[in-house]
Amino acid sequence: MCGIVGYIGENKKAVPFLLQGLEKLEYRGYDSSGIAVLNQNEIKIVKKQGRLKVIKDILGSKDDLHSNLGIGHTRWATHGDPSDVNAHPHLSKSGKIAVVHNGIIENYINLKKTLSKKGYEFKSDTDTEVVAQLLDSLYEGNMLGTIKKATDLLEGSFALGIICTDYPDTLFAVKKDSPLIIGVGEDENFIASDIPAVLSKTRKICRLKEKQIAVLTSKNIDIFDFSGGKAKMEISEINWNVDAAEKNNYDHFMIKEIMEQPKVLNDTISPRLKDYSIKLDNLNFTEEYLKNLNKISIVACGSAYHVGCVAKYFMEELIRKPVEVELASEFRYRSPIVDKNTLVIIISQSGETADSLAALREAKKLGARVLSVVNVVGSSIANESDDVLYTWAGPEIAVATTKAYSTQLSLMYLIALYISKVLGTITDEKYKNLIENIKLLPEKITGILKKASSTEEIAKKYYQTEKIFFIGRTLDYAVCMEGSLKLKEISYIHSEAYAAGELKHGTISLIDNKTLVIALATQDKLFDKTISNIREVKSRGATILLITTEDKADKISDIADDVIYIPKISNILSPSLAVIPMQLLSYYIAKFRGCDIDKPRNLAKSVTVE
Ligand code: M6R
């Protein structure tokens, strides 16, 4: 959460870069924004509550902020309301040091008490202002030394951008448990929370490692670790196109990313499939290792957790080992039973989710081997895992994930098939059939997307509904969880995903003639059971939108008010298709309701605080 940027150059171009960079990072938080630049030996700050546009408008009318050095921030509030005073950057008491921060300073209250005794006053409610005043209190003329001392005293997670009036040609950056990259330019260098912020300027990127400090001038970059040793800078070249992080002609990133799914699924699956053999990059699970596994634990947050919920069903069916799925925020604090014979799979789009990263570290501490399924190359989760498999979804900008979910799911299918083949728990016939069907996924998803306008029509009918249930059984139920989350996060309609067979144990009392029930029925063996559950809610007044496979058309009669058909595929793989109309439905409902689809209220794309 929160996006930070920084610039050091020679041509007084700090402000345009900071604004342009922040625009690309607004997905990380957008309740306030601000910049600080060094101008005529003085730090000048412009910061305001509200979207970036507010400070852009102010800066458009100011012509005195030309500068070679500056930092900027777009905020997702953790400590203190979204307000002008709580917006970053924060300035130190002496006016010499300004700071932008992403993360949480866990011991800020104690530090605040100590600093207050030394005469420091605090204007904001933020933890970040403490960093500015702490640096001020430690500063004796050597900024690098001061930052090192401060890192010994700060607890929690912090990516920082720092400027100081005594260093008009230097930008300082710090990374601990929150992402930070350096963009290497010519006669100018940059820092940012994420690559898209610098991509219009440079493709040469260095990802700061844990506990590193960077000292940047326009011509030079030095990296140190917190203990003071000089570290090597590893530069990589970004090979994806800047267009991948642009909206192009779409109204929103979300719909662009939904439409990209056939391509990114293909990019994720096809390099790993050769005829009927699966090659999972450098992953090598021996038969002995797999045989000794007592269980597989999938740990993740949000939609990535929902991928795990789907995977549990098919993994247990194919691998015949227990598969647990757990929210990372729970796993990390509950003494999980995990040891060297447990394979822990962490799923994360960003690779920076604080709870997932902490769960990974906990699992490793307990002796488990950790495999991560990650989208962002070189992210913290990818770096710290024993094995990594990347989803090749490209940059995902919309807060609501779509293409990352789909690629994660496709990789989980490959992992399950790979393991079941090594273990011999799958017949040749079933294995081959599933591989053939996996190869068909991109084409079948294209077919669903071509009919998006009919889902839009259905959305138009129901967008004013305020109470929605998603029901299904087994794999369908797991997909319903994702459908419900998608709808909630972007349309603000309260919805709930329920196991269809469980409704009658209490929740059915909520069903009335104002309720829309979205029923998912793709599993052949369970179709009639789900239809019975649909009848139960229909007879209590609910309106029914049924999502099912084309082959069921003649079995439906008048049970549903509306039906969305998806192509037939092996039952196990149907979640990959079923989620698509759910994504489209959420998107169009939110659009009809006039919601801010790519930046829903209270949310941020990358949740780097716990
Ligand atoms: O980056 P991650 O996949 O670790 O993020 C996990 C969740 O925060 C994320 O899936 C979130 O639930 C999405 N906004 C859902 O659309």
Describe this structure in words.
The protein has 18 helices and 27 strands. The longest helix has 23 residues, at 428-450. The mean pLDDT is 94. 35% of the residues lie in helices and 24% in strands. The protein has 610 residues and is an alpha/beta fold. β9 (181-184) and β10 form a beta hairpin. The chain folds into three domains: 3-239, 4-Layer Sandwich (Glutamine Phosphoribosylpyrophosphate, subunit 1, domain 1), CATH 3.60.20.10; 245-446, Rossmann fold (3-Layer(aba) Sandwich); 451-595, Glucose-6-phosphate isomerase like protein, domain 1 (Rossmann fold). The strands form five sheets. Strands 3-2-4-1-10-9-11-15 form an eight-stranded antiparallel beta sheet, covered by helices on one side. 5-amino-5-deoxy-1-O-phosphono-D-mannitol (M6R) is lined by residues 301-304, 348-350, 353, 356, 399-401, 485, 489, 606-607.
Strand and helix layout:
Elements: E1 3-9, H1 14-25, E2 32-39, E3 42-49, H2 52-60, E4 69-75, E5 90-91, E6 97-105, H3 108-117, H4 128-138, H5 143-153, E7 156-164, E8 171-176, E9 181-184, E10 188-192, E11 204-207, E12 212-216, E13 221-225, E14 230-231, E15 236-237, H6 253-259, H7 261-269, E16 273-274, E17 277-278, H8 287-291, E18 295-300, H9 302-319, E19 323-327, H10 328-331, E20 342-348, H11 354-365, E21 369-374, H12 380-384, E22 387-390, H13 403-423, H14 428-450, H15 452-462, E23 467-472, H16 475-491, E24 494-499, E25 515-521, H17 527-538, E26 543-549, E27 562-566, H18 574-592
Parallel strand pairs: 18-19, 18-20, 20-21, 21-22, 23-24, 23-25, 25-26, 26-27
Antiparallel strand pairs: 1-4, 1-10, 2-3, 2-4, 5-6, 6-7, 7-8, 8-12, 9-10, 9-11, 11-15, 12-13, 13-14, 16-17
Helix pairs in contact: 3-4, 4-5, 7-13, 7-14, 9-13, 9-16, 13-14, 14-18, 15-18, 16-18
Bound molecules: 5-amino-5-deoxy-1-O-phosphono-D-mannitol.
